[in-house]
Write a structure and sequence with these properties.
heterodimer, A: mainly beta, Phage tail protein beta-alpha-beta fold, Immunoglobulin-like, Ferric Hydroxamate Uptake Protein, Chain A, domain 1, 5-stranded mixed beta sheet, 20 helices, 12% helix, 42% strand, B: mainly alpha, Serine Threonine Protein Phosphatase 5, Tetratricopeptide repeat, two-stranded antiparallel sheet, globular, SusD-like_N (chain B), SusD-like starch-binding protein associating with outer membrane (chain B), signal (chain B), cell outer membrane (chain B), TPR-like_helical_dom_sf (chain B)
Chain lengths: 1196, 450
Amino acid sequence: MEINLESTLPIRSKALLLLLMRTFILLFCSTVFSFNTGSVFSQNSKIQILENNEFSIDEIFTLIKEQTDYNFIYQEDIFKDQPKVALKKGIIQAGNLLKKSLNPNFSFSFSKDTRTISIRKKTPTAIQSQLIQGIVTDENKVPLLGVTVYIKNTGRGITTDEDGRYKIYASEGEIVVFQYVGYKTQEIEVTEKAEMNISLQLDLNSLEEVTVVSTGYQKLKKSSATGAYEIITARDIQENPSINIMERLQGIVPGVRFDVANNSISIRGTNTFYGNNAPLIVIDGFPAIDQNLANAPGTALTGTSGETNNSILSTFNMNDIESISFLKDAAAASIWGSRAANGVIVIETKRGRKNSKPIFNLSSITSISAASDLTELNAMNSSEYIDFEQELFDKNFLTDPFSYWRYQNGSEATNTMFLAQNGTITEAERDARLEQLRNQSNVGQINEHLLRAQVTNQYNLSVSGGGDRSSYFVSGNYSKDTPVFRGNESEQYSVTANVSSDILNDRVTFNLGVNHTYSKRKVNSAAIQALTPGQFGLRPYDLLIDEDGNHINRAISFTPDVTDDYESQGYLPWRYNAIDDLSLSNTGYNKGATRVNSKINAKLTSWANLAVSGSWQRGTNEKVDYKDVASYNVRNLINIGTTVNPDNGQLIYGVPMGGVIQLGNTVSEDYSFRGQLDINKDWNDIHHFDFIAGTERRESKAEGYNHTRYGYDKDASTTATVNPTTPYQTIYGYGMTLGNTDGALFKTRRRYLSYYSNANYSFLSTYTVSGSIRYDDANIVGVSRRDRAIPLWSAGAKWNAKNENFLIEKEWLSSLNLRLTYGSGGSVPTSGSSVSTIALGGSDYLSGLPYGYISSPGNQKLGWETTKIVNAGLDIGFFNQRIGLIVDVYKKWSEGILVSVPYNATYGWTTLYYNTGNLESKGYEVDLNVYPVRNEDWTLHNSFNISYNTNEVTDNRFPNNTNSPNMGATRIITGYPVDNLFVYRWAGLDETGQSQIYTEEGEIIAPSQSAMDLEPEDLKYVGRTTPKYFGGFVNSLRYKNLKLTTRITYEFGHKVLKNDIQTSFYPTSSYFSGFLGTSKTLVNRWQNPGDENSTNVPGIVGSSFNSVQRYAYSDLNVLSGDNIRLNQISLSYTLPNSVVSKTNFLRSMSLSISANNLGPIWVKNDEGIDPQYVFAGTYNSLAPSENYSLSVNLSF
Amino acid sequence: MKKSILYILLLVGSFISFKCQEYVEIDQPMQRTLTYTGDYQYLLNYVSRLEKSYFYPELASDDIEITDETFANNVTEKNANVYIWAENIYGDSEDTDWNTLYQQIYTANEVINGVLESEGGTEAEKEEALAQAKVHRAFAYFSLVNVYAKQYDAATASTDLGVPLLLTPDLFVALERASVARVYEQIITDLEEAVDFLPETQKNSFLPSSTGAIALLARVQLQIGDYEKALSLAEEALSRQSGVNNLENYIETPTSYPGRYEDQEIILLKTLGNTVLDFPLSQELLDLFDEKDLRYELFTAPGTNYPWSPFEGRGYWKPRLRSQGIYIGPSVPEMMLIQAECLARTNNPDEAISVLNTLRSYRFKAADYQELETQANVLQEVLDERRRETFGTGLRWLDLKRLNKEPEFKTITRTFRGDTYTLEPNSNAYVFQINPIYIQKNPEIESNPR
C-alpha cells in the first residue's frame, strides 16, 4: 500500500466521487460512506514525515501521538494483520493520515474533551443496525414536533412527527443526537435498548432556527426545501408586543414590506401594472376568507363602503398562531397556482400535543398612546388664518352671505368683516371682535372634548394538552381598542378549538379546527371632521364651548339671522356642534367570521397517507349606520324638505320626522374540498422522497344589500314608509326625491378546480431536487377552457454543501446551502373576456326596468398574465451558527400583463383590456444574524436584513406621451418603473405671484399657458414612490432572564411629494366660496409684488388651477423618502426556573414593557418631514404618537 | 376495516375529481355571456346609458348668453371652449358627447348582431328587441351626424363627410367616415324597419314604440328638408299621441309637474348629456316670451336661484322642478311644431296658425290666453314658437344649422372674458371637431376643416 502525500486524493477521482454520489451507485457503498463522513478529526493537526518509509499502524499512531496531544484507544491486537503503509517524506494532515492508513474495516471516533481517538474494528454484525424508537418531549412532557434526531458522524437523521415520535436505525455504540430549536441538545449512546424516550431542557440561550416549513399543502423539512421561504414563529410574534400584527412583523421579514400606514403587504414588489399586489393568505391549509392580516373598520368584505375610526384590529388572533411562512419564489409558492403570483403567506394555528397534561396560558397586553400632537398639523394659528381671510375679503374673493338669504354662512371672521362693510357694526366693533378671535385658539378644547389617549387591551387564555390518542388546543381572546377620536370604539372576541384524534387503531387521524371571531366597531366622524377642512371643519379660532361651559352651536347652511328665522318658524334647530354629534351619528360595523376545517388522514402504509380535508368559512359584515333625528345631518335633511303652508303657516314635512338608519349586510361563504396523497419515504436514510398529489375544488360566494329607512324612531323601533321617487318641495323651491341610495343587491360566486403535485427528492440530505406542477380552472365567464386553465410549474435544486466530505470537518463552517429555483406563476384574465359578457344591474329606480350592461366587450385576444421567477439563494453559517447569513437574488419577468389600454371611444369603449404589458423586476434580500456574545448569562444578538427591489416596464408600447404629472395615479411608461414619479420643473413665481415652470430647454412656461404648450419631456422624472431598499435592524441583549430589544426599520431610495397645500381648498379664481386650507405654508403666500423673490407659494389673486397644480406637483415639493425609524424598544423579564419551580402551579411567567412608534431617528430631507406620514391636510395623516405597552404572559 | 376506510376515502377523493369541468362551467350570478333574449332586453332597458345624448351643442347655441363676468370666470375650460366655438375643445381628454353616443351604438349593435339567435324568447320578442335597438342606433347617429358633420344638403350630401358608421360590435374595423347621405340613409332605414315590429305604446316612453320611431323619423325628415314627409309623419304621430300638459295646473305647486314617465307630452324619452343646464339664457330668447307665458314663469328662474353658482339673468328651471333630466326626444309639442312649420312652408298659413293656437292654449292661464292671428310671416311665428317650446334641449343647434341654408338667417355674436366671437351662418365652426385623440388612434378618420 502506498500513499502519495502531495496529492491526498487525485482531483479526477474526487470529481468522480462527486459524480458517483449523484447516482444510485453509492447506495451500495454504505460502509465506505460511513467511514468517509465519520471523522471530525481536527484538520489543523499536521504530521511531519521525515523520510520515505513503511510504517505499521501502531507506528503511525505513535507519530500522531508525538506530534499532537492526542491519545488512541484501541484493542491491542486489532491491527495485527494489517499491512504496513508506505509514507513519503512531507507533511500530511492527521485526519487524512488516519483515513489513508486504516482500511474500511475500522472506524474511529474523536472526543474533543478528552482529546482521545478511539478505534474499533467493524464486525459484520455491527454494520447491521437496530431500530431505535421513542418520543421526544419537553420538560413538561409535551411532545415536540420536528426535533432533529440523527446519528452522530453519519449524516443519517430524521425529525419527529406531531406526536414527538421518531424511529431510526443505529448500531450499538453510535451516538444519537436530539436537537431542537430553543432546547439544549442531547447526545445518547445507543445501547441494546430499543426504546429511548427523551425530554429536552429549555435553553434560554438558544438560536432561532426553524426546521419545518409549511406550504399549506405539506410540511417540508427546511433542510430539503429548495424554495425561498421565511418563517416567523410564535416566539418571534410574541417578542414584539403590539396590537396590530402588521406592526409585529414589520422589518423582520426580508423581502416582505408591511406598509402599516396603508395596511398593505407586498412580497418582492409588484408583478402587474395597476392590479393587486397582495399575497395570498392561507390559514391552516386553506385560503382565508378575509385576505387581510389586519382590518380597519369599514373595510368591508365586499360591496359596502366604510369609514375609518383609526383603530386597526388583527384579523387572526395572534396568540393562536404557531407559525407564519412566507413563500417568496416560484418553487415555494407555485403549488398555489394561479393565486400565488404575488407570493403566499401561510399561517398555521397552534395544536395540542399528545400525552401532555393540560397547559394553561394566560396573557394580556395593555397599551396606551397619547393623542397626536395637534401642533404637528402644521396649521395656521388664528391670527394667521384671519390675515388670510382678510386678504380674500379685501381682494373681493368672498360673496357677502348677508346679501341673499340662500347664501351659505361665512366664517365668524369674514361675517364680522361683511357686517362692518354693510354698516351693521362699526369698524371699531369689527376690530375688537377680530382682535378677540385672533387671540383665541381651539386647540385646548379639541384636545379635551374630541380627543383622548388611545387605550388598547387584549386578553388571551388558552389551554392545550392531550391523551394517548388525542390532543386539543382551545383559546379565547378579547381585545378592545378606544382610539384617539372620541365616539369611536372597537372590540373583538375570538375563540379557537383545534382537536385531533387517532381512531381505528391509530390508522386514521381526525383533525378538527373551529374558529369564530366577532368584532364590533363604532365609527363616529364628528371628531375627524372637526379637524378636516370642510363644512364641519373648525377654523383655528372656532371654539366648541363658551366661557360658561355651554356648547357653541354654529350655523352652517345659512347665516345666523336666516337660521334664527327658520328656527322661529318651527324648523328643527339648524346649527352644529361636534361634541353633540359624537353620540348622535354612529356607524356600527359588526363582523363575524367562522372557520371550520377538518381533515381525515389514513395511513396506507408507513410511508403513504391519503387524506381528505375540507374547510368551510363564513363571514358576515353588518353595517348599521344610525343617524339620530337630533344629529345635524338628519336635521339638515328634514329642514331642507320642510316648507310652510302659506294658508295656515303650518309646516309641511317632505322627509319623515325621525332618524335615518341604513342597514347593510354582506355574507360571504367559502368552502373547499381536497383529496391528497402524501408519500414520505426514506430508503436507508440515503434517499428521501416527499411527494404529494391532489385535487381540490373550492367555491366562494358573497351576497349583500343595503337598505335605508327614514323616520326611524329608536325607542319604538318603527320607521316611516317612503316612496323614494315621490318628490317633495324644498325650501329652495325645487323638488327633490329621497332617491335610491341603496344600490342593487349584489351577488358573486367563484368556483375553482385544481390538480396539483409536488415532489422533493433528497439524496444523503445533501442534494435535493424539487418540482411542482399545478393546473387551475375557474368559472370565468367568457373565457374558453383553453385560455382559462394553464399549467403552472416550478423546479428547484439545493446543495447542502456542508455535508460534503471536504467541508464536514471544517468546524468554523456550520452550514452552507446553495439553492436555485425557476418557475412560472400566472393569473387568469379576470378583467376581460373573449366574448361579450352582460352584467345585471338591478332595476332602474324611476322606470323599474331590470337592466344590464356589457361589462366587457368580446376580445378574442385575451390570455393569461404570467410571471417567471428565477431565484438563487445561499445560506451560510459560521462558528456554530454564531454568524448566519442568508442571501437570495431573484429576477422576475412578467409577461402579458393585462392592461386596460386607452381605446378609440368610437368603438364604444374608451378602454380595452389587452395582454400587453411586460415588466421586469429584480432584487435581492440579505439576512444576517450575528451573536457576538453567547453564554450562560449573556447573549447579544444582532439581526440585520435588507431587501432591494426594482422594476422596469420593458415593452415599448407605453411611450411617454403625457404632459402632466402623475398626481397619485399609476402611469405606465416604457423604461421606467411602475411607481414612477414625474413632476414639473419649478421656475419660481412671476411678478403677479403665479407659478412658472421650465421646459426641458429651460424656457419658462407662464401660468396662463395651457398644458398643451408642454411636451412630455418637459416633466422631470424624480424617482420611485416605493422604497428601493427596506429592512430592519433588530438588536437584543439578554442578561440572564432580562432581555432588551430594539427594533429599527428603514426605507431608502424613494421620493415623496410634500403635500403642503390642499389644492382643492386653494382659491383658484376671483370668486371663492367654501372652505380654506389651513396649511401653515399659506402664511408665506405671495401677497405683494416683490414677494416672488422670497417665496414660492402662489398668491391668491389671479390664481388659477394651473398655477396651484404646478406648484403642488413641482420638483420644489419632492422630498427624499429615506428614513430610519426606531419602531420599538422593549424590555422583557422571564421568571427564572428556580423561582418558577418553587411554585406548585406555575410553568413560566414573563413580563415585558415596550415603547412603539418612536418615530424617525433620521430623515434625509432638510425639513425634517417624516416621509412615511406626509401631511395631507387632515389629522388622519399624522404619524401615530408614541405608544407604550405592558404585556404579561403566564403559563401554568 | 382498514380496507373499508381506504375505499371510503377513495370514494370521496373520486367525488372531488368527478365532473370536473362542469364544476367550473357555471355562470356567475349577475354576470354571464349574452345568451337569452332577456339578456338583450336588459341591455335595452339600461335607461341611464341609452337615454343620454349630446350636451355641447346646447351650450354653443344662441339659447345661452353669458354676460355675468364673475360667472364667466368660473366656467370650466371645456365649456368655455364650446361657448366660444373654439377649434380644440377637449385638450387631451375624451369628448363625452362622442363617447356617450358611440357607446350606445356599440350596445345597439350587440343587440342587432345577436338577438335573433338568442335563446328563450319568442320570435316577436326578438324582433321587438331588434327594432328597439335600431331606434336607439338611429337616434345616436342622427345626433352624431348633426354635431360632427355639415348640415344635410341634397346637392353635396353624398360627398360631405359624415361620421364613422359602425353597424356591428366589432372592435377592430377601420373607422373611415361615411358620407352624410349614407348616415342619413342608415338612420331612415333603421327607423322604417323598426316601425313594424314595435307596439304602438310601450310600458314607458323610454322604450321605443312605433309612435316614437315615427316621431323621430318626422324630426329626421324635417332636418333634411323633406317637408311633405315630415308633415305626414308628424300627423301620424299626433294621431297616436296628442296629450299636452296644461301649465296652468302646475303654477301653484310647480313640483307637481309630471315626472318623466307621467309626462304625456314625451313620445320617446331621450335626455341631454347634462341633467341640468345651469347657464344664463340669452336675452334674445327671453324677449320672445310674453309676460304671461307660463313657460316663462314655470320653466325659467332668476340666476340667484342657483346659489352654488349664481348669475345675472334667468336660467332654465324646468329640469330642476323634478330633477329627472332634460328631455330632448320627440314630443307632442315638437310634432305639432313640425306640423305647423311644414304647413307654413307648404303654403297653409291658416292651418299652421291653428296648430300653434292649439298648443298655445295650454301655455297660458285660460284668463290670459289670446289667439294668434294669421299674419304675414307665419313661418317666423312658427319658428319663434319652436324656440319658446324647445329651448334648453339642444334642438336649437340643429335648427340653426338647417335654417342657415335660408338666406336671411342670422349671425351670432358673443362677448366672453373680454373678447368678442362671431359665428357666421354655414361657418365651419358649426361643425364640431372630432377629438384629435380619436384621429391619432385611427388616422383613417378625417378631421373637419376649419
